[in-house]
């Protein structure tokens, strides 16, 4: 089992500070320093719009300044990863989560239990092909990021909030998709894994937790070769053993060794076209973000020496 040494982490820091966006530096510092978590909140405010949603390129591959469901997912994902939860007492945290909750649950349309992660205004700004506006979005994104967002609602919002109660009703659609969907997209795995982690954390729907974990493992039996590189991202809350654990360990070993010669990890997915010159600047921004989230994953799997 390969691990990142303390010395290697220290060598990464100065390069990361020089290359990364402010939000990514804030996230990195907050991963190891509880006192730094408030700086993440300050950074997220820079991406919040008047309608309460998140925009402005928090998701690096979408330069749309307007709010969208996917950008809100990114903000909630960051808060969850850093250990924020409904018990966190901070006015700015309450303000951010309330605004995002109001945007999602009161301003965004829901189609068959799902939010559309893309928005029509994406077409007015530079973005990767992933974020082209899609009317029939579920064919590409599946249940993502709706399933993940509902899970975050259970962990980040107090149970007394209207958003929480709405999420309790909406998650029924997601549970029905677990059985109904025969072919899962990569995004399905990401969102179902995230939801599973949130349900475990919130101690909700124990029977559905078992059903969901079994479904993830069942679908991976046929998808493992196509998703081998993605395994660390889609199994953070799933108990694995046997051949799947071997495949996961192999990918984690490769991830430990995967830094580029400049010292950081590079984003492996491009924009899928040459339509926008901003694709090049996005890849530079990804150096910091990819490195931060890789370090987060390696730590989660015990691959960083203590």
Features:
13 helices; two-stranded antiparallel sheet; 306 residues; mainly alpha; 2 strands; 57% helix
Write the layout of secondary structure elements.
Layout: H1 6-19, H2 22-32, H3 37-45, H4 69-81, H5 91-107, E1 110-111, E2 114-115, H6 138-141, H7 146-156, H8 162-180, H9 186-202, H10 206-223, H11 231-234, H12 242-256, H13 278-300
Antiparallel strand pairs: 1-2
Describe the fold and architecture.
With 306 residues, the chain is mainly α. Helix content is 57%, strand content 1%. It has a two-stranded antiparallel ribbon with strand order 1-2. β1 (110-111) and β2 (114-115) form a beta hairpin. The model has no long low-confidence stretch (mean pLDDT 96).
The residue ranges in which pLDDT falls below 50 over 5 or more consecutive positions are: none
Strand fraction: under 5%
Helical segment count: 13
Instruction: Give the helix level as a range of percent.
Output: 55-70%
Average pLDDT number? 96
Molecular shape = globular
Overall structural class, as computed from helix and strand content, comes to: mainly alpha
Give the gist of this structure.
The chain has helices at residues 6-19, 22-32, 37-45, 69-81, 91-107, 138-141, 146-156, 162-180, 186-202, 206-223, 231-234, 242-256, 278-300, and strands spanning 110-111, 114-115. The protein has 306 residues and is mostly helical.
């Amino acid at each position: 089992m390969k691990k990142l040494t303390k010395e290697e982490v220290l060598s990464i820091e100065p390069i990361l500070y020089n290359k990364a966006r402010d939000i990514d530096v804030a996230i990195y510092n907050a991963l190891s320093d509880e006192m730094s978590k408030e700086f993440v909140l300050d950074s997220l405010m820079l991406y919040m719009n008047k309608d309460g949603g998140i925009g402005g390129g928090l998701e690096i591959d979408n330069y749309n300044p307007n709010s969208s469901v996917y950008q809100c997912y990114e903000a909630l994902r960051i808060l969850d990863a850093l250990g924020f939860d409904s018990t966190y007492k901070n006015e700015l945290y309450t303000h951010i989560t309330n605004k995002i909750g109001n945007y999602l649950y009161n301003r965004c349309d829901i189609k068959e239990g799902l939010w559309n992660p893309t928005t029509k205004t994406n077409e007015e700004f530079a973005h990767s092909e992933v974020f082209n506006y899609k009317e029939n979005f579920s064919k590409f994104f599946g249940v993502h990021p709706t399933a993940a967002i509902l899970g975050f609602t259970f962990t980040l919002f107090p149970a007394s909030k209207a958003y929480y109660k709405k999420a309790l009703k909406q998650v029924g659609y997601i549970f029905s998709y677990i059985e109904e969907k025969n072919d899962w997209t990569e995004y399905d795995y990401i969102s179902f894994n995230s939801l599973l982690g949130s349900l475990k954390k919130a101690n909700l729907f124990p029977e559905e937790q078992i059903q969901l974990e079994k479904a993830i493992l069942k679908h991976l039996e046929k998808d493992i070769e196509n998703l081998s590189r993605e395994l660390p991202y889609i199994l953070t809350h799933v108990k694995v053993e046997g051949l799947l654990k071997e495949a996961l360990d192999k990918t984690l070993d490769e991830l430990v060794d995967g830094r580029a010669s400049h010292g950081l990890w590079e984003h492996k997915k491009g924009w899928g076209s040459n339509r926008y010159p901003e694709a090049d600047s996005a890849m530079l921004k990804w150096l910091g973000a990819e490195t931060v989230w890789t370090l987060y994953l390696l730590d989660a799997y015990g691959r960083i020496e203590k």
